[in-house]
Each structure stands twice: as structure tokens, then as C-alpha cells.
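Notebook entry, cofactor series.
This is the third protein in the set we're modelling with a bound small molecule. For this one the ligand is 2-acetamido-2-deoxy-beta-D-glucopyranose. I'm keeping the input format identical across the series so the outputs can be compared line by line later. Sequence and SMILES below, as received.
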Amino acid sequence: MFFQIVFVFIALISVISATATGTIKGRLDLAANNITGFVSTRTSFKLYQIGNFSTKYPHTATAIFQDDEGHFEFSNLPLNEGVNETTYYVMYPASMDFNLKPNRILIEFKNLENGTLQLNAFKNLFGRENFPSKDIIYPEKLESMKVDPYIKVELLHKAPIRSYLQARNVSIFSTGIIGSILNSRWKLAGVITLIALVVFPIIVEKLDPETARAIREETKRKQREKYGAVASK
Ligand SMILES: *[C@@H]1O[C@H](CO)[C@@H](O)[C@H](O)[C@H]1NC(C)=O
Ligand SMILES: *[C@@H]1O[C@H](CO)[C@@H](O)[C@H](O)[C@H]1NC(C)=O
Ligand SMILES: *[C@@H]1O[C@H](CO)[C@@H](O)[C@H](O)[C@H]1NC(C)=O
Ligand SMILES: *[C@@H]1O[C@H](CO)[C@@H](O)[C@H](O)[C@H]1NC(C)=O
Ligand SMILES: *[C@@H]1O[C@H](CO)[C@@H](O)[C@H](O)[C@H]1NC(C)=O
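Returned structure with ligand:
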């Protein structure tokens, strides 16, 4: 009987302490790309408790991906006790590979009167140094974020993800007839010779008509001699 009471007591305590901790679920949405390899180890999410806290030091935590779809989670977060009490955390992504937004997220846990724990999240926009606080005389409006089923962190620019090494665009100079000529030394030499054979007489004709005529005469004479020689055989 005594042990049963103790057991119930322990169970009760564990239930009470369970209600006094919070959980934050998040996901890095990489636009349908799964997170694999080094990328998963080079991105993490950090959490820092701000405002009032009941523990000796503000709670800090780091979360990494739970799966290749970018899910991450902070659990067992200490919360301030009491009705209408709030607990604040700031969460921020740290990544070597991506520029992510929001760059900082304010997390608010609130103990409602009916016993439920309310979770709110507000994003910090780039260019704003601090989260607007209720202590400021003219606070800016906090921009609320969806928390269910998770807080979404995205790429700053939704550009397609490219690998660090990428083959160059295959251009007109490396494919087809032109490509095949440029890539072969012999074909290139042939083309240059052909061009020279066509172009050389034209250039000579233009620069030096006398010599050009002499060359033509000489060629004709040689041909005549050749055919003459053939004929006389
Ligand atoms: C990501 O992974 C899931 C299962 O882990 C798979 O169903 C899905 O096809 C993958 N997506 C890509 C883009 O690789
Ligand atoms: C922090 O706690 C003190 C004392 O409990 C209280 O006076 C103060 O209003 C609290 N501040 C906030 C931001 O909740
Ligand atoms: C908690 O907040 C609600 C709404 O602001 C208020 O009606 C209620 O009196 C507060 N309860 C306590 C115990 O301060
Ligand atoms: C507690 O109150 C909030 C808002 O007042 C409401 O959304 C929520 O459903 C309530 N929860 C319960 C268990 O009554
Ligand atoms: C190469 O570039 C052209 C035009 O710049 C583009 O139409 C084509 O899709 C590109 N090809 C590849 C393989 O990227």
C-alpha cells in the first residue's frame, strides 16, 4: 500500500514536471531536396533563453537534423511556472552551406489559465537588430509564424541548389561539326590549309597584280608542258 502511494506520488511528480517543460519542433525546408552527407553536419539550430528564467543560468541548446527531410527538435525546455507566465527563447540557424531565414526566431511559451501551454513564434527580419520588446515605448509589431506542425526555416533565396562543382554548359564550340574540328588537331590543320589555299591567291591578286599574273602564266605554262609531254609520249 505504501509503495503504491509512493508510486502514484512519483507518477504525479513526473506528470507535473512533464507539464513544466516545452518542446519546439522545426524543419529546414530545402525545397524538396533531401539533406544528406556533410550538409547535415554543417547545419545546426541554436536556442538561447532570454527574459526571466527560473533556473540558475539561461537554458541553451543545439539541435541537429533528425532525418534527411530537415526535421529538428528541442525538448525538455525549462519553463517559468504560474498562470499567464511566459518563457522566451531565441532560436537561430547556423549553417555553412546556406543562408537561411528567418535569421532569428523569438519563441514564446505561455501557461494559459486552463492549463494548456501556448507556443508562439515570431520572426526577426533582416536589418532589424533586436526583437521589439514590450518595454519599448513604440514597439514594432512582431511578425507571427506558424508553429504547427513545425516552425519552418527556409533558404533566403529559393534558388535551385547546385553542387560546388558543376560541368560547364556545353556550347556550340565543343559539340557538333565545329566542336569536332576544334577538338582534332589534324582536322584543324586541314581546315587552315584549305582556307590558306583559297585565300592566298586572292590576297596576292589584291596586293600585287603583276606577280599574280606571273604566277598564273607560270601555272598555265607548266600545265601546257605537262599535257604536251603526255601527248608526245
Ligand atoms: C527524400 O527522402 C524521402 C524518404 O526519405 C524520399 O521518399 C524522397 O523521394 C527523397 N526526395 C529526394 C528529392 O531525394
Ligand atoms: C521578471 O520577473 C520579475 C520578478 O518575478 C517581474 O517583476 C518582471 O516583470 C518579469 N519580467 C518579465 C519580462 O516577465
Ligand atoms: C491571465 O490572463 C487572462 C487574460 O489576459 C486574465 O483574464 C486572467 O485574469 C489572468 N490570470 C491571472 C491569474 O493573472
Ligand atoms: C485553453 O484556452 C485556449 C485559448 O483560450 C484554447 O485555445 C484551448 O483550446 C483551451 N484548452 C483547453 C484544454 O480547454
Ligand atoms: C546551355 O546554354 C543554353 C543557352 O545559354 C541553354 O539553352 C541550354 O539549356 C544550356 N544547356 C545546358 C546543358 O545547361
